[in-house]
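REQUEST ID: PR-0412
SUBMITTED BY: lab tech R.K.
PRIORITY: routine
TASK: structure prediction, single protein chain
INPUT:
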Amino acid sequence: MLAWCARLASLGAVTAFDYGYVRAGRRLPVLVAAHREALAELRGRTQGPFFLIGKSMGGRIGCHVALEEQVAGVICLGYPLKSASTGALRDKVLLELRTPALLVQGSRDALCPLDLLEDVRGRMSAPSTLMVVDGGDHSLVVSSKQLEMTGDSQQDVNGRVLEAIGRFTAGPIDPSST
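STATUS: complete
OUTPUT:
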C-alpha cells in the first residue's frame, strides 16, 4: 500500500493509516472507527471531494464507512468478495452501498472470481465501474509469464490502474456526496 500511496499522491492528497490490531483486533466496528477517524482528520485539514481507497479488507471497510459518511466514491483494490477461511460471500455491503464504486480486480484473484463479482454488480444500487487487471492476482500483481507475453511491465499495469483511478475521481461528482 505504501507504493500505491506514492502513486496516488499524483492525483491528490492521500492519507494512509494503520489499524489498531494490537489493541482491539480485527473487529468490524473497530476497523470502521479507524477509517472514520482518518476521514475526520483529513476533513479537518483539507477540502473535498473525498474518496475512500483501500486494498482488500481496506476497500471492504471503506464501503462500510461510505454507508455512514458522505464521500464522493469508494475505490477497492482487490475487493475480498469471498472469505479466505470460509468461502462465504461478502456482498452485503456492496448491495447496501449508494456511493459510486470503482472495483479494480485481478483476473486471477481467487478471493473475487469475476463471474461472482459481475452477478453482485448486477444487483448493486450504487453505480460501479470494474477495471480488470488481466492476469493480476489479489494484489494486482501480474505473473512474469503474462507480462512477457504482453510486453508489459508491472509498472505499465500499475500506471493503467492509476489512470483508471484518475478518471474515476475526476468524473461527475454529486455535490451532496462530498
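NOTES: The domain at 2-8+16-170 is CATH 3.40.50.1820 (Rossmann fold).
REVIEWED BY: pending
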